[in-house]
Amino acid sequence: MTVAPQFAYRGNELYAEDTPLARLAQEFGTPLYVYSRQALREAWQAYQHAAEGRNVLICYGMKANSNLGILNEFKNLGAGFDIVSGGELARVLAIGGDPGKIVFSGVGKQASEIQAALQAGVKCFNVESEAELQRLSQVAQAAGRVAAVSLRVNPDVDAQTHPYISTGLKQNKFGIAIEIAPRVYQQATALPGIEVVGVDCHIGSQITETGPYLDALDKLLILIATLADQGIHIKHLDLGGGLGIRYSDETPLPPKTLLDQVFQRLNAQGLGHLQLVLEPGRSLVGNAGVLLTRVEYLKHGEARNFAIVDAAMNDLLRPTLYDAWHGVEPVLRRDGDGNTAQTYDVVGPICESGDWLARDRRLALRQGDLLAIMSAGAYGFVMSSQYNTRPRAAEIMVDGARSHVLRPRETVASLYAGESILPW
Ligand SMILES: Cc1ncc(COP(=O)(O)O)c(C=O)c1O
Ligand SMILES: N[C@@H](CCCC[NH3+])C(=O)O
Question: Which parts of the sequence bind pyridoxal 5'-phosphate (predicted)?
Answer without folding.
Answer: 242, 279-282, 379
